[in-house]
Specification:
The chain is built from three helices and two strands; from the N terminus they run H-H-H-E-E. The protein is α+β, with helices and mostly antiparallel strands and about 170 residues long.
């Protein structure tokens, strides 16, 4: 028997190098932290126990290699700690050889929700400036989720009084 060379619907996965810096995770950003990723796999995915129409369990449609990992909290903590060791501190510090010159990154078109600015019928591109960092390094660039949630205390927008509002 040969080894499996492809799986319909599978995603190509990136390297784990500097994985702690690449949140959110998965193709749809569905997991915000490394711990959430490990917990996802630990429970066998989000729909492992789902039973669909006609009482057909979701597992009937899952790959035979997908299952629960049954990890303890301390094992999950250890896996997260291991994954965090794969982060190169030079990347975090943006020090040589990971420093960079001043960069201008395209960020959509100038305008508002109704229209874009144009002098000649072509939308004008708006750019974000990323300041240069010398070889000694500098502060790490703000991440996708930085300032939104630190991953520790999730705010679901409900104030907890049971009426479903803030």
């Amino acid at each position: 028997m040969g080894e499996r060379t492809s799986s319909p619907g599978a995603f190509k996965i990136p390297s784990l190098r500097n994985v702690a810096l690449t949140a959110p995770y998965f193709h749809n950003g569905g997991q915000r932290t490394l711990r959430e990723v490990i917990e996802f796999y630990n429970r066998g995915g989000d729909f492992h126990d789902h039973v669909g129409p006609n009482n057909v369990p979701q597992t009937a449609f899952m790959d035979f290699e997908i299952g629960r990992l049954e990890l303890t909290n301390s094992e999950i903590d250890a896996m997260v700690a291991f994954l965090e060791t794969l982060t190169d501190q030079r990347v975090v510090d943006q020090s040589a050889p990971f420093d960079h010159p001043e960069l201008f990154v395209p960020n959509g078109q100038k305008g508002d929700a109704q229209s874009v600015d144009s002098d000649d019928g072509i939308a004008e591109t708006e750019f974000l400036r990323v300041a240069q960092v010398g070889s000694a390094g500098g502060p790490f660039a703000a991440g996708f989720l930085e300032g939104i949630d630190n991953g520790d205390d999730y705010d679901d927008g409900d104030d907890g009084d049971g009426d479903g509002d803030d």
